[in-house]
Amino acid sequence: MDIQIQELIENLNHPDVSIRLESLKRLMDKIKDGQLDKPVKKSDVNNHIHTTYSFSPYSPAKAIWMAFQAGLATAGIMDHDSISGAEEFIEAGKIAGIATTIGVELRVDFSHTLLSGKKINNPDQNSVAYMALHGIPHTQINRVKEFCKPCTNWRNERNRLMTTKINDILPPVLHLDFDRDIVPASNFADGGSITERHILYALSVKMIQTYGKGRPLLDFMKNLLKLNINSKTEAFLLDLQNPYYAYDLLGLLKSELVGSFYIDAATECPEVSEVIQFSDAIGAISAYAYLGDVGDSVTGDKKAQKFEDDYIETLFKVIKALGFKAVTYMPSRNTMEQLDRLRKLCEQYDFFQISGEDINSPRQPFICNALRNEKFKNLIDAAWALVGHELAATKHLDKGMFSKASMAEYPDLESRINAFKHIGLENLK
To answer: 242 with 288, same domain?
Structure first.
């Protein structure tokens, strides 16, 4: 690859957002000039891409470039406790000619519901679940930033305690300093959040620096940390040329170590009813994120364990009563039996169905092949309806998919999805 082109691609993750966007413009110019091949745009969509504003190998501009290279028709940003990357993502989408949606993923407290005490969709803590706010109107970005700010500040208090706690189980040579090792690896200074993944990524880097790659590192983890390492991960970590080495190590550590240093989140997780109320006020679409019982984890950082499936009908009654508008799920993560049951319940309870393939690791493809199954065509339509909703609600807050006016005009959910899909597709012209 041309050195200049390679430099431009590397600059998509530059600390300066203006350099990131300028590099993307120059790359697109090179495609127009025929210096770079133009990828074939397909019908694929992805509404759940994490960026460096939570945890990811990709800045918002780099995420759009990866989406463009994969041939995605639409792409959606979805960071934990942060929407600070949204404006860059929107601008990058315009540069690359990709329709975008913006959202935020939050952890919410279900302890005052019938789900209290249950493991919902959060591997680390009972009574707390992940939910997404999709299709946030662009006029409401600052309100979302203010809503998230206390959550990230309280989270950092817990992050500091967890850093101390993980140091207690590590040899002194691996001890982490929150301000020196972890904060600089995040976008916290620009409104991003810091997660358990940041702590473990900092640890991954320090372990590689201390023990090197390959057998010495594996021996340390097996003999001293007593970690269980499956054959797939071991092969990755024995490969000294593995370009994703630190991320593969992070996946292992998240799967094996989190339980030993995790501290339950409290204040930083607002009550679910409060978040639903906020979502409705800003014209966003509130979505429960279905996980389902896990066998072999797609991302490599979740143990096989049970989640919502044993009580899923109760779950649907609860989220319907709370006022959720949608359910989001990953077709690649679940069995067809799980998906068929889930989709029937969505139809029964009249939930908008949204796809979202969680991207926070370089091994995760931006394309979900499962979505190409004809039975999931509704999820492609939903992505375009999200685009349409976001455009309409940005112009007039009372014109979104679930506004009183829209629901009166299109009482049937399917007809409403179809109407907003056409608004989204019209934007392509």
So the answer is: no
In 3D, which of 393, 324, 17, 416 has the Cα closest to residue 189?
17
Strands of 128-134's sheet in order across: 45-49, 74-80, 99-109, 128-134, 285-289, 326-329, 352-355
For residue range 263-306, list pLDDT tens digits in order: 999 899 999 999 999 999 999 999 999 999 876 554 444 567 88
Q: Into how many domains does the chain fold? A: 2
Q: Which of 261, 282, 307 is the last residue of a domain?
A: 261
Count of residues in the chain: 429
Q: Which residues pair with 208 in a beta bridge?
A: none
Supply the range of the domain harboring residue 111.
3-140+270-426
- Residue 79, helix vs strand vs coil: strand
CA distance 59 to 24: 12
Distance CA 55, CA 98 (A): 22
pLDDT digits (tens, 9 = 90+) for 214-262: 999 999 999 999 999 999 999 999 999 999 999 999 999 999 999 999 9
- For residues 208 and 292, membership in a common domain is answered with no
Put simply, whether the predicted model's pTM sits higher than 0.85 gets the answer yes
